[in-house]
Specification:
- The chain is built from nine helices and 32 strands.
- The chain has about 575 residues and is of the alpha+beta class.
- The structure holds alpha-D-galactopyranuronic acid.
- The site of alpha-D-galactopyranuronic acid has 9 residues, from loops.
- It holds the Pfam family Glyco_hydro_2.
- GO terms for molecular function: hydrolase activity.
- This is Beta-glucuronidase.
- It comes from Paenibacillus vulneris.
């Protein structure tokens, strides 16, 4: 996949990115009709990865589309096709056979095709961007309804016994790390096999293991070892260790950093030291690329975050691309990662839907499995702005938080509440995030003071009084270039005033351990003529960015930079 380092040296991999055949299927007539009948007149080429809505004539298109490409293999081999992100429902066909499907636009999935014959093969993807009240996000989300294959597609050639997955865990005692590597192996062979599994990292070779696999079966082995004098990963000190696992003819390379994260006495401690979080919410979105955000621009976004004085970014509101998270690891920048829960604040019907809950749990599983090794991630976000005053929200919280904790005890679990004064789920979390917009949707900026007092009372009453608190969203819209002498609504001046005053209030309150401004840069919003939502989004953008959509700084950016950099 698109990572900043190579994950395989022995296993042959290649990207299938590039120009694919493409056709929309608004009537859902199926590939034969939509595709072959219209080809070549009704079809076009589209770059993978990209969003179709960034192409002429497709701006508004929500629905199904067909993609086609071909790949060659020079001798019979087993292959794995890895899809890093397809919005939102995906069906995969190889040589006319349906070989897999997936729901969830921001998490990766793959299909394994054993013993494919030598020669040319046809790969067809049906992508459907339709959302409804039971999808994550729902069909009402404050970002653009893009569709398409938004992240890379990779082809891997697998040997008969291959490494299905690697899970690295460690226990830090001072500067000694006790490490375990859980290696999952899979056989595609019709015969029993035996493989030697080796692993190493800088300064440590793990004792090898010999694993026997029955034909076509899987097996698991855990390698253990200790590393002394480990260099700890920290904010601005990105010490990383590369691990190479080899099993027979296959290999798997991954990376981690050693660090501890915990909550103590109302504070967040990273490597035992108190942490004050300064950050922003960031969508991985750009008006020209949509969610197919190019790696080159990620480097620029990261440089801007560093310039602003941030030590954390919230990946609002979905798992972001692996390349981005690799960059955060490499630059010592923290990440709050979450699944796309948006649009559940108006009714509890969605929260009560078993299908919705099942999809959410699966996404949490896919997010945590994919990103488990990144030291930059310190929070898993369970949900954003659901009605946490209700029984339905409580039940869903139990499911989601239970799922997260069952998979990962090394990170903190958080969420963003919009009902801090009446919230009933506080006790399930390690850290509480509050989203409030005083100075924009509600009253004046001073309203934050009363809200915070009410929140503290509510938290005390629920036995959650000592939990660290992050202001996870606040801000105001400011249209880039609209400046003047008076702070009018929607001007850069007004936005800068709100953000500056809010930050000053939060910094006086010792129970607040961090601020995440809404948001990094302006994003496109889906303001359709037939929909009642987001009518206040001038230009059809959410204009609360400290930068505009092309990453040009507004006045608020300069003021926040002064504040964020003051204490560094
Ligand atoms: C919410 C939501 C954000 C955004 C913001 C706003 O807090 O979580 O995604 O929609 O409001 O701009 O109103």
């Amino acid at each position: 996949m698109i990572r900043t380092f190579r994950q395989h040296i022995l296993r042959k991999t290649r990207l299938l990115d590039g120009l694919w055949d493409f056709i929309t299927d608004p009537g859902n007539v199926g590939q034969t009709e939509a595709w072959y009948n219209n080809y070549p007149s009704g079809s076009r080429k589209l770059v993978v990865p990209s969003c179709w809505n960034n192409e002429l004539g497709l701006f508004d298109y929500i629905g199904a589309a067909w993609y086609r490409t071909y790949f060659d293999i020079t001798q019979e081999s087993s292959i794995r096709l890895v899809f890093e992100g397809i919005l939102h429902h995906a069906d995969i066909y190889v040589d006319g056979q349906h070989v897999g499907s997936h729901f969830g636009g921001y998490t990766q999935f793959s299909v394994v095709l054993p013993h494919l014959t030598e020669g040319r093969h046809e790969l067809i993807v049906r992508a459907d961007s339709t959302l409804d009240w039971q999808t994550l996000p729902t069909d009402v989300a404050d970002w653009y309804s893009y569709g398409g294959i938004i992240r890379s597609v990779e082809l891997q050639e697998l040997p008969d016994v291959y490494i299905e997955s690697l899970k690295m865990d460690y226990q830090l005692t001072n500067d000694q790390a006790d490490i375990s590597l859980q290696v999952q192996l899979q056989s595609l062979s019709s015969e029993d096999s035996e493989v030697v599994v080796n692993a190493s990292t800088e300064g440590l070779a793990f004792p090898a293991a010999i694993v026997s696999l029955s034909a076509g079966q899987s097996a698991q082995v855990t390698l253990r070892g200790s590393l002394d004098n480990v260099r700890k990963w920290d904010v601005g000190r990105p010490e990383l260790y590369l691990f190479t696992v080899q099993a027979g003819e296959d290999d798997y390379i991954d990376r981690t950093g050693f660090r501890t994260v915990e909550v103590s006495d109302g504070q967040i401690l990273l490597n035992g030291k108190k942490l004050y979080l300064q950050g922003v919410n960031r969508h991985e979105e750009h008006p020209e690329w949509g969610f197919a955000f190019p790696p080159k621009l990620m480097l620029k976004d990261l440089a801007i975050l560093q310039d602003l004085g941030c030590n954390i970014v919230r990946g609002s509101h979905y798992p972001q691309s692996q390349f981005w998270i690799d960059l955060l690891d490499e630059h010592g920048m923290l990440l709050w990662s979450e699944i796309p829960m948006w649009g559940c604040f108006m009714s509890t019907e969605t929260l009560a839907s078993p299908l919705f809950a099942e999809r959410g749990v699966r996404m949490l599983d896919e997010m945590i499995t994919r990103d488990y090794h990144h030291p930059s991630i310190i929070f898993w976000g369970a949900h954003n702005e659901i009605d946490t005053r209700t029984q339905e929200a409580l039940e869903l919280t139990k499911k989601f938080v239970g799922k997260i904790r069952s998979m990962d005890q090394s990170r903190l679990v958080t969420y963003a509440t919009m009902h801090p004064e009446e919230d009933t789920v506080l006790s399930y979390f390690d850290v509480i995030g509050i989203n409030k917009y005083y100075g924009w949707y509600q009253g004046s900026v001073d309203g934050f003071r009363d809200m915070l007092q009410n929140y503290y009372r509510n938290a005390e009453a629920q036995g959650a009084g000592g939990k660290p608190l992050i202001m996870s969203e606040f801000g105001a819209a400011g249209i880039f270039g609209d400046t003047g002498w008076e702070p009018r609504l929607f001007s850069e001046d007004y936005q800068a005033d709100v953000v500056q005053q809010a930050l000053n209030i939060f910094r006086e309150d010792s129970r607040i351990v961090g601020t995440l401004i809404w948001h990094f840069a302006d994003i496109r919003v889906d303001v359709r003529s037939d929909r009642p939502y987001f009518r206040d989004r001038a230009r059809s953008f959410n204009n609360k960015g400290l930068l505009n959509e092309y990453r040009k700084p507004k006045l608020a950016y300069r003021l926040v930079k002064e504040i964020y950099r003051r204490d560094q």
